[in-house]
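Sync notes, pocket subgroup
Present: LS, DG
LS reminded everyone that the earlier model was apo-only. Rerun requested with fe (ii) ion included. Inputs:
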Amino acid sequence: MFDIHSHVLPFVDDGSSSLESSLDLIKTEMANGVTDIMLTPHFKRGIYDYGVDELKEKFLAFKEETRKAGLNVNLYLGQEVYCDRYVYDHIKEGKVLTLNGTRYILIEFDYFTETDILDYVYNIVMLGYKPIIAHIERYSYLDWNTIFDLKQMGALIQVNAFSITGDFGRQFQKKVISAIKKGLIDFVASDVHSGRDCVMQKAYKTLLKHAGRTLTDRVFKHNAEQLFKN
Ligand SMILES: [Fe+2]
């Protein structure tokens, strides 16, 4: 299984504040059947804005720690980029990381303040990138009919595993599973932080019951596999 959205890298955002808890997160991912993890620390201007070189250094050091701990897992580096009006400059100037050096960029928005997601997607695509919208189910103002339009524009869509298991409420679960069945969702990911359970395996099994193997494997494995290979 592949996980394209996680906050496992220590000391860079609200994901993990110690090496130990980061290694524990990796162990939990592995216990869930995840073999390949994209580490996507937050980029939020003025709050989490480490330089890309510093992040790469921290990533390599962490990778070495996982090797020393005997954890057999494939790790990649990206970022989860919060979109505000400066985001285009940050992308153009190379101040934010794409996923594993590809043209794919994981983006997020304010959960509650109405944001023109279509406009951001349009402009990021125009810059030559492929935006992946993180946890689409969390934007309370988003009309889900626009997911189709977002995809037409070139966006890919991610939902969180705990929205499928029902841990985030039944309403969410129904909505998300129905969107997956309609082919609107490209990826399920953990968005794991220390102190939050990784429920990838539980979500996989839940979706398997509702949507069958082909569709389940597509959103948990095959689409991400393509992305990791660019
Ligand atoms: Fe996240």
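DG: Residues 5, 7, 80, 134, 191 surround fe (ii) ion (CB under 6 Å).
LS: The first strand starts at residue 2 and ends at 3.
Action: DG to write up.
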